[in-house]
Amino acid sequence: MTGRMTGRMTGRMTGRMTGRMTGPMAGPMAGHVSSHVPELQYFRTPLMNASAALPTLPRLETEQEVETALPWSTIVWNDPINLMSYVTWVFMTYFGYDRAQAETLMWQVHTDGKACVSQGSRERMESDAAAMHSYGLWATIERSGD
Hints:
Blueprint: H1 3-18, H2 30-41, H3 50-53, H4 63-69, E1 72-77, H5 84-95, H6 99-112, E2 114-120, H7 122-134, E3 138-143
Antiparallel strand pairs: 1-2, 1-3
Helix pairs in contact: 1-2, 5-6
């Protein structure tokens, strides 16, 4: 070993043995980190043709394909509390339905006990159901076709 290399190793060893480390590497693990990092560099070897060693994985469905295959619905349920005019107003305000469509859905809720008010991704339907809850309506989500 050269004198320069011996000097560096001695300084590192002395710092670790006495527990005195200064600078950005000072801390409870400073001696361990500083003494092992340079040694690890000698054991690194480049990977040769790493892509050839990887197995071919099956193609996964994208989020859009899943949403198309399994759309979700927001269902609003009948309740004995809210007025029919209020339910119509909520449908017009939140979903942007015109009065005729909103009243049709409101009558479906009133007579059938429930109505599907929106369809789409699960995340969007969860958001719609939470919005209906904030208006005081009873709402759930379910997969379309269930």
